[in-house]
From TrEMBL:
Gene3D superfamilies: 6.10.140.1170, Aldolase class I
EC numbers, comma separated: 5.4.3.2
Positions annotated to bind [4Fe-4S] cluster: C191, C195, C198
Highest taxon above the source species: Bacteria
Domain Radical SAM core: 177-391
Molecular function GO labels: 4 iron, 4 sulfur cluster binding; L-lysine 2,3-aminomutase activity; metal ion binding
Protein name: L-lysine 2,3-aminomutase
Organism expressing this protein natively: Candidatus Moduliflexus flocculans
Length: 438
């Protein structure tokens, strides 16, 4: 017979397995999700709900030894359940020199860059992602991607704050309509982790633009999509849309799903990588109601493929969401064939299809991140034929000025000999194809 203590213990264990229902309330008349009129600045996760502290039982989310050691060292009062709560992670993100310098031996250059910073693209690192940073090596790839250096303050020729001309292809605030059949719907300017090479650095974390992300603007954008029947594909991005709470996200998805000509919805996010705790069973249960729903996940380096990230991606894949990766080619971070091979192989194992490799956009202060295009071609050449085509991303330049994505391929066509097409294979050997038919 079980003692009362054992029964209580068992019940506590059970509560670990249960998820609260979706926060979204539906209007009984219209069946429309109810939405308070608030700005996204308010609901970026900072003020939301209670942290649900569950004691005892087995943890719902993987907590690796590395993360556990880091938590005990820098957040000794924090429980494992709090650490695994994405809202706790957002509330405790590292944003200032004092906190960061307690965790990392900052170089003089990093220190100066952080001290000088003001305006958009603030320093912001979730405790989870901070646990992956090398405390003593400023050249570590993950650290370089999130800790500023003074190179950010040098504007080189050809750089601009909005190199893709997004502001000029925006029919209503927050919507970019560059291609006839699809739109980019920017729903927030908030990110839990700020990447130092961000294409939208001009607006991320900006109080001014935050005021532009509210339900009135969302409704304007949805109205534009509704009235434009050529739009069959909507990419929800930002900022990071997965920093919105479930109810806001569900409201957006519900509204878009009701538009008949919208065949496909995509979400662009880095949350599964920098905030894997965000991928809760409640979120995936909600997302899978809005299929066909795809997700583009921003990965930078193979060291990001931790057990936590694998679990988060597994949950999304189990919800039937096709996952693709987007990676920016970055000097000294991922610009080696060996590094990229490890990344794409790790992604395939994580059920994420390597989709895009982007040439770094010439945003202001990006010279220290940008490689020559020949480097990207070398990487594609080092992948194509050496691994499955599923693991080879499309290498593209997003054309400055708003020309859209232009694919770049190494030279595999060597010319013609008469009517024979001369082709080079992945080993550099030449083959002929009879390029004629009756
Ligand atoms: S997650 Fe995306 S939008 Fe956010 S800072 Fe990084 S690159 Fe920019």
């Amino acid at each position: 017979m079980k003692t009362p203590g054992a029964i209580a213990q068992q019940l506590r264990g059970l509560s670990e397995e249960l998820e609260p229902p979706s926060q979204c309330l539906f209007d009984p008349q219209s069946e429309e999700p109810l939405l308070r009129r608030t700005s996204t600045a308010e609901f970026s996760g900072l003020e939301l709900g209670q942290i649900r502290v569950i004691r005892g039982g087995k943890p719902r989310f993987i907590h690796s030894q590395r993360a556990a050691d880091f938590r005990k060292r820098y957040f000794p009062q924090t429980t494992q359940s709090e650490w695994n709560d994405w809202r706790w992670q957002i509330r405790h993100r590292i944003q200032d020199l004092k906190t960061l310098s307690a965790m990392l031996a900052l170089s003089p250059d990093e220190r100066e860059a952080i001290a000088r910073h003001h305006g958009t693209l603030p320093v912001s690192i979730t405790p989870y992602y901070a646990s992956l940073l090398d405390p003593s090596d400023p050249t570590q790839p993950l650290r370089r991607s999130v800790v500023p250096v003074t190179g950010e303050y040098l504007t080189s020729p050809g750089e601009s704050p909005d190199p893709l001309g997004e502001e000029h292809t925006s029919p209503v605030p927050g919507l970019v309509h560059r291609y006839p059949d699809r739109v980019l719907f920017l729903v927030t300017d908030f990110c839990s982790v700020c990447c130092r090479y961000c294409t939208r650095s001009r607006m991320i974390g900006d109080d001014e633009t935050a005021r532009g992300f509210n339900t009135r603007h969302w409704e304007q954008a949805i109205d534009y999509i509704q009235k434009t029947p050529t739009i069959r594909d909507v990419l929800i991005s930002g900022g990071d849309p997965l920093t919105l709470p479930d109810e806001k996200l569900e409201w957006l998805l519900w509204k878009l799903r009701r538009i008949e000509h919208v065949e496909m919805i995509r979400i662009g996010t880095k949350a599964p990588v920098v905030l894997p705790q965000r991928i809760t069973p409640a979120l995936t249960r909600m997302l899978k109601k809005y299929h066909p729903l795809w997700m583009s996940i921003h990965f930078t380096h193979p060291d990001e493929l931790t057990p936590e990230v694998q679990q988060a991606c597994g949950r999304l894949a189990d919800a039937g969401i096709p996952l693709g990766s987007q990676t920016v080619l970055l000097k000294g971070i991922n610009d080696q064939v060996e590094t990229m091979t490890r990344l794409v192989h790790g992604l395939v194992k994580t059920r994420v299809r390597p989709y895009y490799l982007y040439q770094c956009d010439p945003i202001s202060g990006s010279a220290h991140f940008r490689t020559p295009v020949s480097k990207g071609l070398e990487i594609i050449q080092g992948l194509r034929g050496h691994t499955t085509g599923y693991a080879v991303p499309n290498y593209v330049i997003d054309a400055p000025g708003g020309g859209g994505k232009i694919p770049l391929l190494p030279e595999y066509v060597a010319g013609y000999d008469g009517k024979d097409l001369l082709l080079k294979n992945y080993e550099g050997k030449t083959y002929r194809y009879p390029d004629y038919c009756e």
